[in-house]
User: Which sequence fits this backbone?
């Protein structure tokens, strides 16, 4: 999540590049990096797994990025971020239900604390429009799908294979969309040096590295507890912006950072207590 948060510091470098075409280039390079990491040992999914991976690519990757851009076109980025930042609560509810378990109220409460802290970090900077809110809610659903659709696949395919397949499947979706919204020259213009640098960072760090780390966390911690760390994203974005002199560490934002940290700690402690209580006692 810290790696993803760093992307906000480089997004200005591709703000003028076509959205769908830029994402297609990013994921193409990311897929090549992931394939190199896998060294050709990419698991072959079964038909049902391939369907799930295709849905993952369509929602969690392609649609998510485009919905965020659509939301920010009619609503301030801070408000969009506040909506998407409620994903820890959604995952705390949906993760256990998908696995056939009851949601844990304390994890839900921890997710709410993380979401509130993330909202304080980002802040509400403007009016909320109907179109922007609809797109932001769509982005929230896609953000949750990014973890929920992948979770059942991680035990059989592993984080690297799931990441490689999802990223690779998203490329043709975005490429077709880019071509439908403009010709080849308009969809994929020659990037400038700053755009190349930004796309390389997004592909290597925000895609290849972050995806493998995230799916490793989901496999180790479970969807609901890994989801708490989504609150790290706005904190990392704030710290990067503050380091570059583009944002200010106000008292309210610092309080938000502390709330995110407290929520994550509270949620993880619930997991430790649950495991401890389920372990057989020694006599």
Assistant:
């Amino acid at each position: 999540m810290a790696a993803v948060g760093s992307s906000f510091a480089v997004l200005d470098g591709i703000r003028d590049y076509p959205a769908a075409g830029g994402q297609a280039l990013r994921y193409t390079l990311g897929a090549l990096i992931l394939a190199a990491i896998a060294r050709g040992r990419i698991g072959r999914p079964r038909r049902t797994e391939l369907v799930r991976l295709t849905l993952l690519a369509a929602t969690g990757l392609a649609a998510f990025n485009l919905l965020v851009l659509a939301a920010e076109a009619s609503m301030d980025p801070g408000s969009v971020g506040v909506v998407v930042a409620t994903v820890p609560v959604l995952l705390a509810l949906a993760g256990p239900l998908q696995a056939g378990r009851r949601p844990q109220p304390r994890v839900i409460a921890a997710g709410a604390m993380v979401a509130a802290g993330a909202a304080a970090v980002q802040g509400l900077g403007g009016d909320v429009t109907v179109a922007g809110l609809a797109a932001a809610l769509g982005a929230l659903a896609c953000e949750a799908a990014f973890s929920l659709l992948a979770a059942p696949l991680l035990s059989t395919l592993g984080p690297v294979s799931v990441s490689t397949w999802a990223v690779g499947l998203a490329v043709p979706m975005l490429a077709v969309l880019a071509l439908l919204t403009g010709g080849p020259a308009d969809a994929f213009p020659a990037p400038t040096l700053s755009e190349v640098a930004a796309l390389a960072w997004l592909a290597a760090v925000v895609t290849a590295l972050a995806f493998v780390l995230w799916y490793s966390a989901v496999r180790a911690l479970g969807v609901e507890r890994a989801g708490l760390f989504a609150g790290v994203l706005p904190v990392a974005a704030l710290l990067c912006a503050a380091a570059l002199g583009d944002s200010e560490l106000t008292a309210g934002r610092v309080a938000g950072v502390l709330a995110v940290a407290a929520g994550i700690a509270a949620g993880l402690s619930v997991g430790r207590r649950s495991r401890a209580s389920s372990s057989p006692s020694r006599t």
Notes: DSSP finds 13 helices and no strands in the chain. The radius of gyration is 19 Å. Confidence is low (pLDDT under 50) at residues 273-283.
